[in-house]
Every structure is written in C-alpha cells, then in structure tokens.
Amino acid sequence: MQYHRPTSFNEAAALANQATGETRFLAGGTDVLVQLRADIVTPDTLIDIKSIPGVGDISQAPDGSWTIGIAVPGAEMREHIQLGKDWPGLVEAMDLIGSTQVQGRATLVGNLCNGSPAADSVPAMVAAGVELSVTGPTGSRRIAAVDVPVAPGRTSLAKGEVVSAVHVPARGKNAGDAYLRFIPRTEMDIAVVGCAINLTLDTDGTVTAARVALGAVAPTVLLVEDAANALIGSSLDEEALNRLAEAASAACNPISDKRGTVEFRTHVAGVLAKRTAKIAYARAQGENT
Amino acid sequence: MALDDQKPSGFKFVGTSPDRPDGLDKVTGRARFGADAYAPGMLHGAVVRSPHAHARIVRIDTSKAEALEGVKAVVTRADFVDGLQGEFGFVLENVMAGEKALYDGHAVAAVAASSQLIARDAVKLVEVEYEVLPHVTDVDAAMAENAPVLNDSYADASVPAGHHPNVVRYHDSGHGDVDAGFAEADLVIEDSFKTEATHQGYIEPHACLASLGGDGKGELWCTTQGHWIAQKTCAALVGIDTSQLRVTASEIGGGFGGKTTVFIEPVALALSRKANRPVKIVMTRSEVFRATGPTSSTSMDIKIGMKKDGTITAAQGIFRLQGGAFPGAPMEFSAMCAFAPYSLTNVHQVGYDVISNRPKQAAYRAPGAPMASFAVESVIDELCSQLDLDPIDVRLKNASREGTKASYGPKFERIGLVETLEAAKAHPHYSAPLEPGQGRGISCGFWFNHGGETSVSLALSEDGTCQISVGTPDIGGSRASMALMAAEELGIPYENIRVTIADTATLGYNDVSHGSRVTYASGLATIKAAKDAVGKLCKRAAAKWGIPEDAVYWEDGCAKPSGANAGNFDPMPLAKITKSMGRSGGPISGHFEATPEGAGVSFGTHIVDAEVDPETGKTAVVRYTVIQDAGKAIHPSYVEGQFQGGAAQGIGWALNEEYIYGEDGRLQNSIFLDYRVPVASDLPMIDTVIVEVPNPGHPYGVRGVGETGIVPPLAAIANAVSAAAGVRLRHLPMSPPRILRALKDKG
After folding, report:
1. Which of B673, B721, B731, B734 to mutate to test the interface with A (most CBs of A within 10 A)?
2. Is the complex ipTM higher than 0.85?
3. Is residue A26 part of a domain?
4. Nearest chain B residue to A42, by CA
5. Structural Rg of chain B based on CA atoms
6. Percent of chain B with pLDDT strictly greater than 90
7. Which of A36, A32, A53, A52 is nearest to A102 (CA)?
8. What kind of fold does domain B41-133+204-253+259-291 have according to CATH?
9. pTM metric for this prediction
10. CB of B712 within 8 A of CB of B604?
11. Collapsed DSSP state (helix, strand, coil) of residue A284
12. Shortest CA gap B106–chain A (Å)
C-alpha cells in the first residue's frame, strides 16, 4: 500500500490519476479505515488530503454563501454558530453520524463519496442544493451533490478526480431546512429512512420553493420533485402534507434487508416527510426548533 | 444445612456497598483482559472460516499459506484428537470442522504467523474446496419432513420415533390431567410464539494466549467464565493430561454465559504445539457473532385455561429450540421454567432440541427461560385482559409458595415470589397514570440457581490482613462480595482483604461462574474457609492462655474467653495472633471445598411502561421497575446492577436484537451497527426493589441474582407494547417493521 500526503488538490489529483489498483482518499477516515480493518477494501494507494491548506476552514462569502473545507469534521460544523443558524438541517444531519469520537473526524465529503444510500448528510446536502468543487487531472468543475452518488458504493467522479470544496448556497430570507431519520434506536445507528426538506416561504407563509430529498429508500439519494410540488403554494395544511407523504412514498424504490422491509421503508418515508416538513416550515418562519 | 448454622441478623459488613477491589484497575485501564497478554516470541493466530452454511469439505490445501514468509504453522482437524465422544466431541467439531462445515463462520483451519497482518493474509491463502449442501436455519423448517439432514447420528434415545433426524433430544414433563383442567376453564387461550436468536453481546471478544510444548506441558491465558472447564476441555481436545495444562483466567469483559465453553483456545494450543512458540488469538467482533454461542431461536405453542375468578385450571406448552449444529439447546430449561411461578394442578410441557445450520448455542443468562416466560406470560396477560382481571392479582392467586409442587417436579422450599408480587402491587409505578399511546406490562420470572463444585482457600498474613483464592472468575463484582463475607466472619475491615481469582494449579476443580452460583457457592465456601481459619485462631489463643480450645470464641475480630470460668483474659485481636503465628504453630489458613446443594431458587416480577409510535412502530421503554428476591443482598449496589443489567439485556432482546440470516444461510448482521443492542440513551433509569426472603441453604440466606433478572423482561415488555399498540405481539424482537405490520393487520 502506497501512502501519500499531497499539499495541493492538483497534486492529489495527479497522484490518483497515476495510481493503479484501488485508490482511496483519506480525510476523516471513518469509513476508509473501518473498511480497511474489516478487510472490505485494501487500497493500493491511500491519498491523505488533510494536509492541503484550507481543508479545515468554514467561510462565508459576502453574498451569504458558504464554503466548507473537505476535512471539516462534523463537530466543527456543529460548533459553528452562524452556519447552524443558516442551515440547521444540514448541520443536524451531519451531527447524527456516529459517536462523539466519530464526529471529531467524519466529514461531509467522506459521507457523500462513500456512496452509501443511507448516508445522513447527503439528503440534507441535496435538499440544500449543495455543490462540490472537483479537481481533476485536466482542471476543475462544479457538480451538484445529488449527481455524485450513482449506485451503492459508487460515485460519478472519474479517475483522478477529487472533491476539493463544499459550496452551500446563501440561506436567504424566510427559509429553513430540516433532516430527520428513522432508526430503531435513539443514536449510534444507520438510517433506515432519511428525509431532508428545505423550504422558502413568502411573507404570508406560503411555500414558494421546496426541495425534498430522501435517503435509504433507493440505490442513491432521491430528490423528489413531486413531493416538493405538493408543498409549493401551500401553507403546509393537512392536505398538502398528505400529498407530500404520498409523493414521498411513491418515489421510494427500496430493498428489504436487515435494516427494514420495502413496505416499512415506503410507509415511513411518508411519515418522516410530514414531520420533517413541519420542522423546516417552523424554522422558515423564524422559530428556533 | 441447619438453620441454626445461619448467622443472626445484625451484619456489620454484609449489606454495605463499598467500591469493588478491582474497580480502580478497570477504570484506569490497568486491568488485564484476554487480549492483554504477551509472551516472548509470540505468534498471532487467525482462523479460516467457512463462508457456507452447510458444505462438505472436499479438500484443504495449506501449502500456499505455509509458504508465505512469516507463517509458522497451519492446523486443520488432523491436528486434534481423534474419536472424542459426547460433549467434547461436539466441542471439537465446533472449534474445528471435520468432514463438513455446518454453519457460516465454522472454523475449518487456522494459521499462526509472526504478525497479525501476515496471519490474515495467510488465511486467504488456505484453499478450501467445498461441496455446498442444502441448509436450514429456522427451527420449524429444520423439523419439517424434507429438511436437510445435518447429522443423522446426533439424536439420542429420548426422541420418539417419527421425528426428523434434526430433532436430537426430547423432553416431556408435568403432572395432573390437562384435558380435564381445560374442561373446567371458563376461558382457554391457545397461541403460538417465536423468538429470534440473540447474542450475549459482551464487549470483550474472545482472546487467549497459549503455549504448549512437545512435552505435553502447557499454559493458557484466556478470557473465560470457568478456567477449569477450559482446562479439561482443551486438554481433551489436544490430547494432553488435564493437570499438565495450567489455565489462568484474565479479567473478563462480560460473559453472560457465552464464555462457559471454548472456541479459539484449543486452536491456539494446537498452533503453539506445531510452531513450538506461544500463540495469541483475538477474535474480531464479526467472528464473535458468527462463530461463538448465541442463544437458541424458538417456536412455542402455549395453551392455558382460566376460571372467571383468575384460577388457572391447566397449562400446556410446547417449546422447540434451535441450538445450532449440535445438540444442547436448553429446551428442558424452557419447559421447566415456563410455568414455575404458578401452583398448577394440571400442567404439561414438551421440549424439542433441534439442530440447524447455525453456530452452536451457548448459555445466555437463565438459558431457555426468558423465551418460555415470554410465551407463557403473554397468554396469561391475554387471559387477564379478556376476563378483565388485574394481572398482579391473578398471579398472586396462582403463585407458587413454600410447599407448592413445582411444575417441574419438586416441592418448593421457602421462596419469595409472593413477596415480589406484593411489592410490585405496592410500588408507585404500578398505580402511576399512563400517557396516551403508552401501555403497561408485568411479568413474573423464575430461575433455578446452581451450586456446583467449589473450592476456596484463605490465608492470613502476619500483619493481620487476609488473602482469599477463589476459582470463580469475577463477572459481577464477586470479589467485593467475597471480601464482605470474609470480613463478616473474621471481623477485620473489608479493605484488609484481597480476593484473587486463582489459576487452575492453585485450587481443586471449580465449576464455571454460571448458574448465578458465585455469591452463593463461592460465598458459602469463603464463609466456611473463614470459619476454618477462625477455629485455628481460637486454638492459638487457647494455647497462649493455657485454656481448652472450646473455652474460646471469636467475636469482632478477636479471640475471647467464653466466660468467667474460662479465665480472665483480654480479647486477643487477629493481628496479634498472626504476628506470632510462625512461632506458635505455623501459617494460619482456612479452606473449604464442596458441591453445595442448597442454591435457593429465585423469582422476580417486572413492571414496564412502553410507548409505541403508531406511525413508525418504534417503541420507547419509558419506565421500568425490577423487583426480585435476592435472599440476602451481600452487596446491594451490585445486586441492583445485576437487576438492571438483566432488564437492559431483556430490552434489547425484546425490541431489536436478532440474528438475521439471508437466503444463502449467511449471517447478515455480524457487527454492532446492525446487531442492535440498546445504547445508553435507549434505556430509562431502571428502578429496583430488592426483596429478601432468606435461602435456607446459605449461611446468610443468599440466593443467586444474576439470571432471574433476564427472565421477565421479554414478556413484561411484550405485554406493555401489546397494550400500547392495541394488538398482541407474538414474535420477538418487536422491531418497528414487525410492530407496524401488526398494526396494519389489525386495521
């Protein structure tokens, strides 16, 4: 196994491009190291990207948008007061991952690129409209978070490409997001269903924009347009919520496995969508929930 | 034992809760557990395991593994003793497969190498050719007519004709006439139940360090609940004399019954012998789940008849237990414990021990009893509900008492079931209002408790302190209990006593720390060993004073003349006698060994409030109270710990823990992420009430407390969940998908 510690993303991309066999990028390592120890993956090349300048920073641009470094752990996101005020759903989704110890290492990008359909932060990123900067052998590009996972354990990133930054849009007024997951326990578990909703309201409380994302109910995260449309134009009345739940359940394409059945996941997706929408709506109205 | 041998009330040390002697080591990391042993020249072992649920082993080629640099030995079944019969034969077959791999994870070979990484690589180089066979993992499917046959020679003579060869043992017991009893009933309910297999979930994986020379002399360090059984079993499997293998028990990071047998220990010994170097093996968590001893899964049919006034007229149960690929599923304990809380005129119980393509089951706290209790107490709850009777009143009406002929045969001596029920009824929990969406459940539970071979030695030091050697690994704070009982007898402070878990070379055979026997049996032996030493102390004092031995008695840590006639001497403290013992006759020690028979049975009653989310099927246990008869609580805080631990493990078993097998017969959830034991935030504070109805078979009245506490939770939680959900749950665990399905079926 070759271990590298590049100091720039261009160098990281070049190393990955030249590597043969299995390549893994190492930031928090909360998936890669576990997989290595469990004999699931033994990378031929391990590229540690924690030493690249700026990867641990959270910064806000004058337009209100945010850039989060690829090695920023969940614990630092949680402790960032303004980020939490702008994007409480994204921060709470990240915060649900693992234990306190894991929170000290785990990152948004790691959660995304591990490719698990059940990743908690991914529906929240998708609902928030997060984009990623990707550095590759021939230059950089921007890609929406929703377009990164293509199948369980697989991403759309090409050989030699490495995510170099996370871009979260400006929050804007009268807007809020939320994330809920279903687990059989109270913590230290993996989502059986995850739901993130991001809402923008007008001044009288009518939903003008909505994004609804579901996790763990399909091979990849789902951005459910029908579910969003069920909310747009409503004030989150019972009828809109029921339409939301129906649309969320209808979008599910889950499997039955050790964590839940098709029937269960499909039903609970609707239940969670309603509950999540209510929290996002309250936040958009300025309530501190 | 005569009652006049019992210590009167007015204990000085017993009944207090000092810090455990091993506590500082355990919270600072100084304590040495199974994986904390190292030896010069030590190799690392790793085990090759079957990926198939059932397969004939056609060929094993170890040549590539042996050729890898750093590999010092590879063993297969050929490196163990041939022709073992009975339980040793089953254990050998389990720790190293012979002709067939019988479950996913079954060991088929093992390697020893100079590093863990090399050993892991070498495992991948061992080539095993399998002929995959049809498999079965479900208990009912394994009994069915066309089920794959695992082994057609395992069934013993107890099995009636006409059963599938996978049915290997049969049990039938009871008394009275159940048909006549059912005819007298106003309401008869008959229902079927299933429970999935669970694992004890001890945090410390199995680990050992073994050294065995060509001279047949060996040393073994391992995490175990019983190092004498490990000694006996390992010696038999590798073919050496028992006494030539010295076994030392490490500190133990949980066992709960699962560390009462061996898995990697004989393998490490065989590797060591072949490599002529010490070999250490540490299991991964996945190996622990796949290849150690979970509980049985069960399928049960219960039929109970009740009169309108709550009198049970007859009870009948069929208990089918799947115990993995070998005989031994504790179906007779299921059958015998099922109805033990009740005084029944007509009772009949039948048990089936069924083999299937799963790992060999091992004991798990009151083996067999929790599942049976779940089924029986669910039906009693349903009867109470349909007849509109209070569940505690009904249990009190039918409760077993002193003199009751137990459902499993003997007459009960003094027992404390009624006292636990009365305490439950009086507890504020039982009358507290419930919130909407919540339900309350109660259940009783029973466990036999056990005595077992026990040998304890105690030696006094010149400075008046005391060291005690016991042979039962400390799995629940027993060093503290032993020290308290010795302090009580000797009359010296608790802190002046050090209790050591002695190795197999130090004492005679000690049975395993199981059967809730340690505080009872090792405690009894400790008291008797202390009395033995006290007799010698009195004798030294008598000699010093020049009066007869029987004119001296022991009180408050001093020898005293028994009265004015004996002479007028100042009390002689223990430290004064021991200071000169080298010149007054030599070292003073005490010893006791026996197989005590008076382990008092124990009952408990649990009250549970549960809340069910009707939209997701998720359950929260919101309040929990354990009431149990401890006989006499030597260390009340650790007794409460046992009560709470039983309830916590029961909550996991009832709600989320289960072995999940795929269609391919492979275990799907061999990590703690997907084998869901409760985390701290899943549990309410578990309240406890210690009832003390003394056991006539122990000098202080001790009854074992370790196991009874896991018997009632499954039923109590199921009754609470069923009340909250408005539908009877008959399949454990009551995971959210199962509850949601039940709610949908109810409509």
Report:
1. B673
2. yes
3. no
4. B121
5. 27
6. 98
7. A32
8. Aldehyde Oxidoreductase; domain 3 (3.90.1170)
9. 0.97
10. yes
11. helix
12. 18
